[in-house]
Design goal:
Helix content is 8%, strand content 47%. By secondary structure, it is mostly beta strands. It has a 22-stranded antiparallel beta barrel. Strands 11-16-17-14-15 form a 5-stranded mixed sheet. Strands 1, 2, 5 and 8 form a 4-stranded mixed sheet that branches.
Length: 998
């Protein structure tokens, strides 16, 4: 009987299962369709059925097909860049749908803060970001060029138009009285990049001998660049974060269940030319000036060396030397290729980039760079273990003149002879012509190699407990050579007679560093509370070697690169340095109800650059934020986001070089009993310690109309104390100064405003616009003992540290026609430094940028206007006295006379009048040589077209890009953007390119 019940039950359940299966099968069906956006097929959209594991993805043509079940299933359409769509099925078999571009809210933007990542909505510090989409639309070789005008509080100046040079970057002003003490910290994928390699022989070609370390990073490899500005963001970097932190995140392979192998190829060709606001005199005006100069000096017979007007040179000849010497078209070729792929657990990306560009100088000088990168990321199946490893190798080779000839291009006499004879040899015009073409026989070159490797791993020890490790290696070698053969001089001169006067300079540097950073992270969320705690430690060691040699006199210039073949060989000190750094750091972030946020960071640093009693210092910060838009009493339709945030803390600096607290010696050139002695080269001071910067900030962030309009206003005040400078010593000590901490205080304060809007964010036409403006203010608050020190000639209490003391120009004396200057001490004569007391603020008043992006179907157009309000040195600062054998700008035609009493320049002089010569020197260093250098520049423009493709191609884009296209300025000089006046300014660039994705 019992068995019968079992049989009956089995039959019953079997019938039930069959019925359910038949019913299920009857409800399973296939749905297909096409997903589009703005009328174009959209690839990579994930389509799934809600509550089911059925998932598919659209192909190149936007089509899909999926099996669904249930009576009225819901389809979900997802894409990272588009708003999610839901569709409830009834009896449809085909579902075509269009997705709208997502308006990304501030709560969805993730920022890299170095040791942690934070949602933009939840950050308590000041972090500025530029992403790959803004980096890729600019034809540049250094990512810092892409940041100009895009970030509030970050002022960047390109030092020169010569490729491979440097940039002056100021993040909320200058904190240190030392020039080298204002450089930010560069970090690439968690590994410090190190500062600039010290160039010994490039000063005549590259302003301040600056070669920026980010030249080694291919902009096409960069995913984003974030800059940390305030104490909350930078204090976790302790002594390295006083001047801000520049974080570079490189591109990685993208993982996913449906990730396929992808190939990206990009290439571009660009041409560049010089920008100049100066119009120089033509031959007729120039010769008239020269004749008038001799007449004013009472000289009736022209000297034998006045070749331009005494008949030796053709007075009917005219050459535009600016066009001849620096007016050539520089071209550049760039190619990038990358391969990426993987699955949901592992992803990889390998890439190669090559860039090659010439200069605007006449000869075939070139800058070349090659970048090879690879990274792989892996996670365990349960996601508890994650590993990321990346490697980068780059080589930059630069070959230019040994000396920038920009200044000569402006000063060259317009009727000077031709550069070359008919046979192509330099024309010295019977030894009357100092031919600048001789410089083309000289050269300055360098080769910079860098290998950077990084590893980051994370393991979830227990629930909410994460063990992290970040480590990296950085190796860099820098070799430079300057060749000055005798052929760069007139053969009739002593230096040009034979290779016995040829000179060769070479220098070599190597730097190796490693960093290890184990970390422990605990994250807890309970009800309305969230806590994130991070503790870690840093171990860093850097070693460096440096040496240089000089060779003078060779049997033949064929041996000039072999200093061993020189008749005179000078070997400088072979230097080896070691830098050790250690730290313990921590962060505690607490959130309540998702709207009250407290962030506390701290770091204890130890550096080998200080004496035994000052090796360690503590730094820290506290930041707080209140997201008041989440308060029930403030919720409304038009305010979508509102946050108040503030921070206060300290950072420091140990950027002073190694072994400064020790006595150092160098080898004496004199012998005693055939034994070389030692000379003391630096006094020790074991008591100097860290420079410290205290930072305070308050900010308001607002979002309106579903974050279509966003506004940020920030105020900051930073004070830097314990300035490390040379302390003046009595001459009896044998040393002019010793490195010490002075109680000088430098303050940087200001306002930063940012406004962004998306007036049209959906449909076939889209428009995004953003503007930022910064009002920085710098001043020297205090400097005890300033009046009695040599620094009194440089600094003034209450004025910016970039200020300069100059003579007060008071116009032209109508009685004598000579320049007049204010006699501050009333002794009846003009002398320095007593009468060099007028203060001019060389610096920025405000700066910013206005960026716009338009999209219409397959077309996109973007442009950026950069604007800077500033005062700086003008051309009067480097102008020879008008009337000498140097060309002048047309403005010099406005010369004083009784008929023109309002003339700008005193009557011309041939250079033989000592009084006029001295007055002109005063003029070059007076208030007349400082003027408004403000400008508005069309910094960047891109016009692109997305070619409709099918099949193998995922996307094809052709584009035109321009850089420094238009400049609006009243500045008197070649270009208002410079670090040191007289060097080649930034170039205007036009580029055509192609991007292909397979």
């Amino acid at each position: 009987m019992k068995n019968s019940y079992y049989n009956i039950g089995g039959i019953f359940f079997g019938l039930m299962f069959t019925a359910v299966s038949i019913g299920t099968k009857a409800q399973t069906r296939t749905i297909s369709g096409t997903v589009t956006s703005s009328g174009k097929p959209l690839q990579g959209v994930l389509i799934s059925q809600k509550g089911s594991d059925q998932v598919t993805r659209t192909g190149n043509n936007g089509t899909y097909q999926i099996e669904v079940s249930a009576e009225n299933p819901i389809l979900l359409f997802r894409h990272p860049d588009y708003a999610e769509e839901k569709f409830t099925l009834t009896n449809q078999a085909v579902v075509n749908i269009s997705l709208e571009q997502k308006v990304k809210g501030i709560e969805e933007v993730i920022l890299n803060a170095g040791y942690y990542k934070v949602k933009d909505k939840e950050r308590t510090g000041s972090i500025a970001k530029v992403s790959a989409k803004d980096i890729e639309n600019q034809p540049v070789t250094n990512v810092l060029s892409t940041v100009q005008g895009r970030m509030a509080g970050v002022n960047i100046t390109q030092n020169s138009g010569v490729p491979g040079g440097g940039y002056d970057i100021q993040i909320r002003g200058k904190n240190s009285l030392r020039a080298l003490g204002n450089n930010p910290l560069y970090v690439v994928d968690g590994v410090p990049l190190g500062g600039e390699m010290a160039s010994q022989f490039s000063a005549e070609m590259l302003p301040a001998s600056s070669i920026n370390p980010l030249n080694s990073i291919n902009p096409a490899d960069i995913e984003s660049i974030e800059i940390l500005k305030d104490a909350d963001a930078t204090s976790i970097y302790g002594s390295r974060g006083a001047n801000g932190v520049v974080l570079i995140t490189t591109k990685k392979g993208k993982s996913g269940k449906y990730q396929n192998l992808g190939l990206n190829v990009g290439t571009s060709y660009a041409v560049s030319s010089m920008i100049s606001n100066l119009t120089m005199m033509k031959t007729s005006d120039y010769l008239r000036m020269r004749r008038q100069a001799y007449q004013n000096d009472g000289i009736a017979v022209y000297p034998a060396n006045a070749y331009d007007i005494n008949g030796v040179w053709d007075q009917g000849r005219y050459t535009d030397w600016r066009k001849e010497l620096i007016g050539n078209t520089a071209d550049a070729f760039t190619a990038n290729v990358s391969l990426n792929g993987g699955n949901e657990r592992t992803s990889f990306l390998v890439g190669y980039g090559h860039n090659e560009q010439s200069t605007v100088f006449s000869k075939d000088f070139k800058y070349k760079s090659d970048n090879l990168s690879a990274n792989i990321s892996h996670s365990s199946e349960d996601r508890r273990f994650q590993l990321s490893v990346s490697n980068r190798f780059s080589v930059q080779k630069n070959n230019v003149l040994s000396e920038d000839i920009t200044k000569q291009a402006f000063l060259m006499v317009p009727n000077a002879p031709a550069l070359y004879l008919s046979d192509g040899s330099p024309n010295w015009e019977n030894n009357t012509f100092n031919n600048p073409a001789g410089l083309y026989n000289s050269s300055y070159s360098y080769e910079n190699k860098q290998f950077l490797t990084q590893m980051n791993l994370q393991y979830e020890l227990l629930e909410h407990w994460f063990l992290k490790f970040n480590g990296g290696l950085n190796y860099q070698s820098f070799d430079e050579r300057s060749l000055k053969p005798n052929t760069m001089y007139n053969p009739a001169s002593y230096q040009g007679q034979s290779s016995a006067s040829s000179q060769s300079y070479t220098s070599s540097q190597d730097r190796f560093s490693f960093i290890l950073e184990p970390q422990l992270n605990w994250q807890m969320k309970k009800e309305r509370h969230a806590l994130d705690v991070l503790v870690g430690t840093t171990f860093q060691r850097e070693t460096g070697t440096q040496g240089s040699m000089i060779g003078i006199g060779f049997e033949s210039n064929a041996f000039i690169e072999n200093i061993g073949a020189a008749r005179t060989r000078i070997i400088t000190d072979q230097i080896k340095t070691e830098y050790r750094y250690t730290a313990f750091f921590g962060r505690v972030n607490y959130q309540y109800a998702g709207r009250y946020i407290l962030n506390v960071t701290g770091r204890r640093d130890g550096s080998s650059r200080f004496g035994p009693s000052n090796k360690f210092a503590n730094f820290g910060a506290v930041g707080a934020a209140w997201i008041f838009s989440q308060e029930s009493f403030l919720k409304n339709k038009w305010l979508s986001f509102g946050k108040l945030r503030a921070s206060y803390g300290t950072t420091g600096s140990d950027n002073i070089g190694d072994y400064g607290y020790l006595d150092t010696y160098d080898l004496s050139e004199y012998l005693y009993n055939n034994t070389a002695g030692l000379n003391p080269s630096r006094l020790y001071n074991p008591n100097y310690s860290w420079e410290k910067t205290t930072k305070l900030e308050a900010a308001l962030e607002l979002g309106f109309i579903k974050n279509r309009i966003n506004l940020t206003a920030a105020w900051y005040k930073n004070r830097s104390s314990s300035q490390l400078v040379g302390y003046q010593l009595p001459s009896i000590t044998g040393f002019p100064s010793v490195l010490a901490n002075l109680d000088a205080v430098v303050e940087n304060s200001g306002w930063e405003l940012e406004l962004s809007a998306k007036p049209f964010s959906s449909g076939s036409f889209q428009w995004e616009s953003s503007v930022n403006i910064s009002f920085p203010k710098n001043k020297l608050v205090s400097f005890p003992g300033l009046r009695g020190s040599t620094y009194a000639n440089t600094y003034v209490i209450g004025q910016p540290i970039t200020s300069v003391k100059v003579y007060q120009y008071e116009g032209i004396d109508r009685a004598t026609g000579l320049y007049r200057f204010k006699d501050f001490n009333g002794d009846g004569k003009i002398t320095a430094p007593d009468d060099r007391q007028a203060v001019e603020n060389i610096g920025v008043r405000y700066f910013g940028g206005w960026n716009n992006t338009f999209r219409l179907k397959n077309w996109n157009l973007s442009f950026l206007f950069q604007f800077v309000k500033q005062r700086n040195w003008n051309y009067n600062n480097i102008m020879p006295i008008p009337g000498t054998m140097n060309n002048q700008p047309q403005e010099v035609l406005d010369v004083w006379s009784h008929e023109n009493p309002g003339g700008t320049y005193m009557p011309y002089s041939s250079g033989s009048n000592g009084i006029k010569n001295q007055l002109h020197i005063f003029f070059m260093n007076s208030t007349a040589a400082v003027s408004d250098a403000s400008f508005i520049r069309l910094k960047n423009l891109e016009l692109g077209y997305q070619v409709p493709v099918k099949g193998t191609f995922k996307s094809v884009k052709v584009y035109f890009q321009g850089q420094n296209l238009l400049t609006f300025t009243k500045y008197f000089g070649p270009d208002p953007e410079f670090r040191n006046i007289g060097y080649l300014p930034p170039l205007r660039t036009y580029s055509l390119g192609l991007l292909i994705s397979l």
